[in-house]
Design brief:
299 residues; 12 helices; 0% strand
C-alpha cells in the first residue's frame, strides 16, 4: 500500500511542477532550462541523501544501470519532455507523456517477467483511458489561454513528447532492479540527476564552442531562478524520489500508472489559472481515474 501511495504522491508533484516550468522554459529554452534545473536539483538531493545517510556502499554495484537510466530517462527524456512542453503547452504535453504508463506495463511484462492480476491490468487501462479522456477531450472550445498556445506543428510536439514517454518507461525498467535491492531512492535520484547535469552542461559547452561567438543569452532573473528551483524540487527532488521508492516494492507498471494521474490532479490548478471550469469530459476522465485507482488498491 505504501508504495502505491508514494506513486500517487509522485503524480501530484508531477502535476504541480509544469506550472512553475512553462514560463521559464519559454524564456530560456528547454535545453538551458533543463541544465540549470538539473544542477540545482543535484545539490538539493545530494544534501538530502547526506543528511539521511543515504550514501551507502550498496549503491556502487548498480552504477552502470543508474548511469544508463539517467542518460535515457533524464538527460534525453527530460530534454524531449520540455521541448514538447514548449511546443504544445502543459495540457497536451501531459496527455501524450501519460502514455508512458501503458508502455511501462508492456516493458515490465516483456523484460522483468511481471505478471499482474487482471483487476490491476483493467485498473491500469481505466486510469490511462481516464487521463486521455480528461486531457485530450477535456477542453471547452471557447477556452483560449497562453498555456494552450502551440508553437510550430502540433504533430511535431506530439512526436517529441511520445519519444520522452518511451525514454521514461525504459529508464524505469532499467532502474527497477536497483531499487528492489534496497538502494536509497534519494541517493539514487541524486546520482541520476548529477550524471544528467554533467552531460547537459558538457553538451552546452561543446555546442557553444562550435558556434563561436553567439548572441547574448537572456539573463536569468531571480523570479526565473525560483521557478526553476521550485519545478526541480517538486518534480525531481520529491516526485522522482517518491517514484523510485515506489519501485522498491511495487510492480513497475502499477507504479508508473499511478504516477501518471498528474493531468487529473492538475485540473483544479488549470481551473484557477484559466478562471474557467474544465469541460465535462475532464470530469468523466477524473471519475475513470478514481475508479481505476480503486480497482488497483481494493481488488
Amino acid at each position: 500500500m505504501i508504495y502505491q501511495l508514494a506513486a500517487l504522491g509522485a503524480g501530484l508533484c508531477f502535476a504541480i511542477s509544469p506550472f512553475f516550468s512553462v514560463k521559464a522554459v519559454k524564456a530560456l529554452g528547454p535545453t538551458r532550462f533543463n541544465k540549470w534545473r538539473m544542477l540545482i536539483v543535484f545539490f538539493m538531493l545530494a544534501s538530502m541523501a547526506w543528511i539521511t545517510d543515504g550514501w551507502r556502499i550498496d549503491l556502487i554495484p548498480w552504477w552502470p544501470a543508474i548511469i544508463i537510466s539517467s542518460l535515457i530517462g533524464i538527460f534525453l527524456g527530460d530534454t524531449l519532455l520540455f521541448w514538447g512542453l514548449k511546443k504544445m503547452g502543459p495540457r497536451r504535453n501531459s496527455v501524450v507523456f501519460a502514455l508512458n504508463a501503458p508502455i511501462t506495463v508492456f516493458l515490465g511484462w516483456l523484460f522483468l517477467n511481471e505478471t499482474l492480476p487482471y483487476s490491476v491490468l483493467i485498473g491500469a487501462l481505466v486510469i490511462t483511458s481516464g487521463v486521455i479522456t480528461a486531457i485530450a477531450f477535456g477542453r471547452n472550445r471557447k477556452q483560449a489561454h497562453s498555456l494552450e498556445e502551440t508553437q510550430g506543428r502540433l504533430i511535431t510536439g506530439v512526436a517529441i513528447t511520445l519519444a520522452s514517454a518511451f525514454c521514461q518507461a525504459i529508464s524505469l525498467i532499467l532502474i527497477r532492479p536497483a531499487m528492489e535491492s534496497g538502494v536509497d531512492p534519494i541517493a539514487a535520484s541524486a546520482v541520476r540527476v548529477g550524471i544528467a547535469a554533467v552531460c547537459l552542461w558538457l553538451v552546452g559547452y561543446i555546442a557553444q564552442r562550435r558556434r563561436g561567438a553567439s548572441p547574448a543569452l537572456v539573463p536569468i532573473s531571480a523570479r526565473v531562478f525560483l521557478q526553476i528551483a521550485a519545478s526541480g524540487f517538486l518534480a525531481m527532488g520529491v516526485g522522482m524520489s517518491l517514484l523510485l521508492f515506489g519501485l522498491k516494492g511495487g510492480d513497475t507498471g502499477v507504479i508508473s500508472t499511478l504516477s501518471s494521474i498528474s493531468p487529473i490532479a492538475a485540473l483544479p490548478i488549470l481551473w484557477v489559472i484559466m478562471k474557467q471550469p474544465p469541460a465535462p469530459n475532464a470530469w468523466i476522465g477524473a471519475f475513470l481515474v478514481v475508479s481505476g485507482t480503486a480497482m488497483i488498491f481494493l481488488l
